[in-house]
From TrEMBL:
It comes from Urochloa decumbens. It catalyses: octanal + NADP(+) + H2O = octanoate + NADPH + 2 H(+). The active site is at E269. This is Aldehyde dehydrogenase 1. Keywords: NAD, Oxidoreductase. Homotetramer. It comes from the Eukaryota. Residues 31-492 form the Aldehyde dehydrogenase domain. InterPro entries: Ald_DH/histidinol_DH, Ald_DH_C, Ald_DH_CS_CYS, Ald_DH_CS_GLU, Ald_DH_N, Aldehyde_DH_dom. Belongs to the aldehyde dehydrogenase family. GO terms for molecular function: aldehyde dehydrogenase [NAD(P)+] activity.
Length: 502
């Protein structure tokens, strides 16, 4: 396939990917769906079927929750010491590291992700995050309280119970471990509903978890569709906590289901329309490279994609020219090819959605500088796209497109761009490019978003909490904040008699 600028990918042969696990994983066993139904998971490189996956629905979710409930209420997992749980999680991480190549292949063939990135970052990063929480498992402490009366008070941190995790398709491995790692470290039992577009790696992780010694029922994986399997998890009366990452629209449904069932605790990581703000004093080559990275990483299918690029007027014209040059050089093609910069959108629906937004941008009056077209004669490939003359109220500046579409806008003053950056219903992340520490400090405190990256982007780390403001959701992943949401705080008080001090 041609690249965005007409460059060929060069000759190479994509590896053959073996799919070993296609059934539901419930109570420590791979099983068929109760209904016997299956669904197709497709390769976005070609649109062809990779495998037929057992299709879980309410009956299967009921079985998975029952297994998790039994594992939590009567099994060894929450009753182990944190040290013992941590040892099993470290073994789980060891097994992930032994299968990096195979796991990266599954995410490439299922989600269209660059194989080299998965092998170098996504899969090793999952093992790293798992080890972070394995190390935290024996460091979960309550507090001794200084009561104002003759009472001894202290708090206990207890696992919340059975957790339902609904995982998105854009980062199948990363998001699986964002959720599962801290919940397991806390002593919870979990039911994971992976995205129907990308179930393959989640089932492989279930296999590795059992091999690592995780007790049966502690980790259950039920592939299926959102309106059936996902809805059943959200509404289940025996699920104590729900963690969802996905669209804002579905996030509303998840909250409604939780409220109408057992008022289970909910954490949401939803959409984003993150700004990248480039000031006149920035190194223009670095700024262009950073903006390109922010907008096009993972073909734009990332909740924190920096797709609203605000550039100060002094360097705006030069920035537009260089950004277009960089985008045109990007090679779009088979994500197994090491020369390729951008793979296909995850499926036909997402591909058509992105192309629709490109048409909307043209109709709204934005200027298409480069890209804007599908490429290749099969699969779901779209050129890196740049619009200029974008107004803040245009759909391409307000809506999360989840594709390789950059909206470039000009600004004059810091006060003006703060207002523009905050003119969104989202608040997930923002990037600031400047050499001036005063500008960086003012901007980082003025933008209403959960992560502010100064002269960098996608600066994720296991110790750095991640989550949004406004309609980007609430609750944090990673860091110790990510562990806290799977814990309950219990206060215990006893009377003190004849105490020499309070």
């Amino acid at each position: 396939m041609a690249g965005a600028n007409g460059n060929g990918e060069g000759s190479f042969e994509a590896p053959r990917v073996e799919v070993r696990f296609t059934k539901l994983f419930i109570g420590g066993q791979f099983v068929d769906a109760v209904s016997g139904k299956t669904f197709e998971t497709r390769d976005p490189r070609t649109g062809e079927v990779i495998a037929n996956i057992s299709e879980g629905d309410k009956a299967d979710v009921d079985l998975a929750v029952k297994a998790a409930r039994e594992a939590f209420d009567n099994g060894p997992w929450p009753r182990m010491s944190g040290y013992e749980r941590g040892r099993i999680l470290h073994k789980f991480a060891d097994l992930i590291e032994e299968h990096v190549e195979e796991l990266a292949m599954l995410d490439t063939v299922d989600a269209g992700k660059l194989f080299a990135v998965g092998r170098a970052h996504d899969i090793p990063g999952a093992a790293h995050l798992l080890r972070y929480y394995a190390g935290a498992a024996d460091k979960i402490h309550g507090e001794t309280l200084k009561m104002a009366q003759r009472m001894h008070g202290y708090t206990l941190k207890e696992p919340v119970g059975v957790v339902g995790h609904i995982v998105p398709w854009n980062y199948p491995t990363t998001m699986f471990f964002f959720k599962v790692s801290p919940a397991l470290a806390a002593g919870c039992a979990v039911v994971v509903k992976p995205a129907e577009q990308t179930p393959l790696s989640a089932l492989f992780y279930a296999h590795l978890a059992k091999k690592a010694g995780l007790p049966d029922g502690v980790l259950n994986v039920v592939p299926g569709f959102g309106p059936t399997a996902g809805a059943a998890v959200a509404a289940h009366m025996d699920v104590d906590k729900l963690s969802f990452t996905g669209s804002t629209e579905v996030g509303r449904l998840v909250m409604k289901a939780a409220a109408e069932s057992n008022l289970k605790s909910v954490s949401l990581e939803l959409g984003g329309k993150s700004p990248v703000i480039v000031f006149d004093d920035a190194d223009i080559d670095m700024a262009v490279s950073l903006a390109n990275f922010a907008a096009y990483t993972n073909k734009g299918e990332i909740c924190v994609a920096g797709t609203r690029i605000y550039v100060q007027e002094g360097i705006y014209d030069a920035f537009v020219k260089k950004a277009a040059e960089v985008a045109r050089k990007s090679v779009v093609g088979d994500p197994f090819n090491p020369r390729v910069n951008q793979g296909p959108q995850v499926d036909k629906d997402q591909y058509e959605k992105v192309l629709k937004y490109i048409d909307i941008g043209k109709r709204e009056g934005a200027t298409l500088v480069t890209g804007g077209k599908a490429c290749g004669d099969k699969g779901y490939y779209i050129e890196p796209t740049i619009f200029t003359d974008v107004k803040d109220d245009m759909a391409i500046a307000q809506d999360e497109i989840f594709g390789p579409v950059m909206a470039l806008m000009k600004f004059k003053t810091m006060e003006e761009v703060i207002q523009k950056a905050n003119n969104t219903r989202y608040g997930l992340a923002a990037g600031i490019v400047t050499k001036n520490i005063d500008i960086a400090n003012t901007m980082s405190r003025s933008i209403r978003a959960g992560s502010i990256w100064i002269n960098c982007y996608f600066a994720f780390d296991p110790d750095a909490p991640f989550g949004g403001y406004k309609m980007s959701g609430f609750g944090k992943d990673m860091g110790m904040d990510g562990l806290e949401k799977y814990l309950q705080t219990k206060t215990v008080v006893t009377p003190l008699h004849n105490t020499p001090w309070l």
